[in-house]
Amino acid sequence: MIGILFPAGAAPKYLCTYYDIVDYLNISSHDKLHTYILPKKDLQEPVEVTMDFFLVAILSVVEKLQTVSFYFVLNLEWQNPFATWNPRDFCNISEIVLPMDTYWSPPIFFLERVNGQNPELNYVVLMHNGSFNSTRPYQVTLTCSLIILKFPFDTQMCNLSVASFLYPVTDFVMKTRRTPAEIMEDSRSFILTDGEWKFTNLSIVEFTAMMDDKGFSVVTYVISMERRPTLYVLNLILPTCALYLLDMAVLFGPSSLEEKINFQIAIILGSSMLAVILNNSLPTSSNKPPIIVVFFLGTFLLMIMAVLDTFFLLYQQRKSLRLDKVLRSFQQDPQELPKRPMGTLAKGGPQLLPPPKKAQGQGQLTKRLWQLQELDPFLPVLEKVLLFSHLFLSLIFFTVVSIKWSS
């Protein structure tokens, strides 16, 4: 057996550890110069960063503040020709994990970001050929111009723009690695939430933003999401429709006009409570009022019109009753009433007793209504005209609102 002799006090050295690669790359002393310098050998060619995007969750959408919160993963790849080694010299070690601040990394930020948490995964994978790979999760809140015209049947499009304004396009360029269809397929498998919003589409826009006569590379991910309207339909739209149907039933019902007014006012108060709930969900400013606001306002006005119609009919009825009372007072002449002597029996035979008071009351009521119809024969016709015109106007309004929501 042949042994290998080493000098006294020396130990065998094998270049088979990550420490050896760190020493070879001269980063063991944490020289920050590697972090600050743009890794370029050819001054004519920019450093190209390819990125990949994975949407994980749509956390929240706040209509009042016009903000949306996303949780996503961003993967970046770039080349550094100053950080390479031959795997054969290090027992075929081809990659190593290093802290993010060991070498230069792309200084990117999100244009629409207003709040969020910085990623805690501050590591990068370095390949032997100088290829860097960084995968970091982000939870950010972005400003988004929410168009709520068709709330709650709306679809929103929010931009997530990745940019860097430190290096112009002559030194730094960002590119996307995959097509939007491929990103969509993977993102749907990554989606963790099944809440109010549904991720529907993704498009990518690469452009150069001009600033101070310099061009800077920007990549924008346009995220389309659709609202699930079931909760709003059950909590707002259906109760409002039910209250309006109840209002129409009261309007066409057989109750007296005084009772109709009491019921209609109570229904209007219930509809006002639903309007307060809606007001807490919608933003305070908008270029156009949402269709649901028009729906609530139109329904409220139709209920007010029903109350006014009932008041008008009640006024006409009271007016006819007063006229009937005046006419009856002119028709009766107290001097023509026969004066009979008080006595038990008359000479001509037995005296007729007056009819009971209840029968008198019923007869007077029947006669009074008959006389009222003769005095104002147009009152029932007026009532039917008002009711059916109100019904026709309601059908037109709800048809127009439905068409606008579905278009």
TrEMBL record:
A molecular function (GO) term: extracellular ligand-gated monoatomic ion channel activity
Transmembrane segments: 231-252, 261-279, 291-315, 385-405
Compartments reported by the entry: Postsynaptic cell membrane
Keywords: Cell membrane, Disulfide bond, Glycoprotein, Ion channel, Ion transport, Ligand-gated ion channel, Membrane, Postsynaptic cell membrane, Receptor, Signal, Synapse, Transmembrane, Transmembrane helix, Transport
PROSITE patterns hit by this protein: NEUROTR_ION_CHANNEL
Entries under Gene3D superfamilies matching the protein: Neurotransmitter-gated ion-channel ligand-binding domain, Neurotransmitter-gated ion-channel transmembrane domain
Reactions the enzyme catalyzes: Ca(2+)(in) = Ca(2+)(out); Na(+)(in) = Na(+)(out); K(+)(in) = K(+)(out)
GO cellular component, as recorded: postsynaptic membrane
Record domain Neurotransmitter-gated ion-channel ligand-binding: where: 35-229
Protein's membrane topology: Multi-pass membrane protein
Disordered as annotated region, ranges: 335-360
Ranges where the Neurotransmitter-gated ion-channel transmembrane domain occurs: 237-324
Main location: membrane
Cross-referenced InterPro entries: Neur_chan_lig-bd, Neur_chan_lig-bd_sf, Neur_channel, Neuro-gated_channel_TM_sf, Neuro_actylchol_rec, Neurotrans-gated_channel_TM, Neurotransmitter_ion_chnl_CS
Any Pfam family the entry gives: Neur_chan_memb
Its biological purpose: Forms serotonin (5-hydroxytryptamine/5-HT3)-activated cation-selective channel complexes, which when activated cause fast, depolarizing responses in neurons.
Protein name: 5-hydroxytryptamine receptor 3A
Organism annotation: Lonchura striata
Lineage of producing organism: Eukaryota, Metazoa, Chordata, Craniata, Vertebrata
